[in-house]
Design brief:
The chain has 278 residues and is mainly alpha-helical. It is 74% helix and 0% strand. It has one domain: MetI-like (MetI-like fold), CATH 1.10.3720.10.
């Protein structure tokens, strides 16, 4: 492919979509195989190589403790993507239950559940995450819990809005008339129709969770050291921006590329499933 053709490919919407899927597939494969393909132990220290620039032995250089940046970046992908996927999975489960119950039951149940949602949404997300993380303490499990607590509200509102519209459909009313229980009506006749917008929002949610994990790790409230995390790597390297900029550039690029790839995939899924903008 010529340079001009490559530029046209990247600029086209279809090209960006294909590129996003390819990049995301590579990131997932890299994260899954990171313990095997990492050239060095990401926690092994070698002070003689402290702040060394990229070389044949260390393609992305070393940090202040002489730890290989490439190995830490690869393992950090496993941590970031794992936290993003698990956070969204937990958030979706909570949001679907709360949103479906509020939308189908209506009345006081809907009123009070939505007031809880409104109360959580009234706080800036990152500030609430910082407060919760400070209370729970650092650690992967606590990061997932923290991000899920602030993340399920969006899915709950989406599911509630869809259920409010779908519960008046003829096939739902027919199921109710035939004596189907509310749980069966929701599970068999309502939630399958909510899957498309839910998948789209979940795809974007993974990108948001990755940024949230990186932000908490940057502030020292995320993954415990010496476990590599892209956000913690940026924080470790910010003191050496003038002498070793590669310590922050590479993890920053990793976050950027991952989020852009997820956004491209989310756009493609939305277009394919014909999900309307909220």
């Amino acid at each position: 492919m010529t340079p001009d053709a490559a530029k046209r490919f990247v600029k086209s919407r279809r090209g960006r979509t294909k590129l996003g899927f390819v990049v995301l597939a590579l990131l997932l494969t890299t994260a899954a195989l990171s313990p095997v393909i990492s050239p060095h132990d990401p926690t092994e220290q070698n002070l003689s190589a402290s702040l060394s620039t990229p070389s044949k032995a260390h393609p992305l250089g070393c940090d202040k403790l002489g730890r290989d940046q490439l190995s830490r970046l690869l393992v950090g992908a496993r941590v970031s993507l794992g936290v993003g996927l698990l956070t969204v999975a937990l958030s979706v489960c909570i949001g679907v239950v709360v949103g479906a119950l509020a939308g189908y039951a209506g009345g006081l149940v809907d009123f009070w559940l939505m007031r809880v949602v409104d109360m959580l949404l009234s706080f800036p997300g990152i500030l609430l995450a910082i407060a919760l993380a400070a209370v729970l303490g650092p650690g992967i499990a606590n990061v997932i819990i923290t991000l899920s607590i602030i993340g399920w509200t969006g899915y709950a509102r989406l599911v509630r809005a869809e259920v409010l519209a779908l519960r008046e459909r003829e096939h739902v009313q027919a199921a109710v008339a035939l004596g189907a229980s509310p749980s069966r009506v929701i599970a068999r006749h309502v939630l399958p129709l909510v899957a498309a917008p839910l998948i789209v929002q979940a795809t974007f949610g993974v990108a948001g969770a990755i940024v949230g994990e990186a932000s908490l790790s940057f502030l020292g409230l995320g993954v415990r050291p010496p476990t590599p995390s892209w956000g913690a790597m940026i924080n470790d390297g910010r003191s050496f921006l003038l002498v070793a900029p590669h310590l922050t550039v590479y993890p920053g690029l990793a976050i950027f590329v991952t989020v852009v790839a997820l956004q491209s995939v989310g756009d493609a899924i939305r277009d394919r499933l014909s999900v309307r903008e909220s």
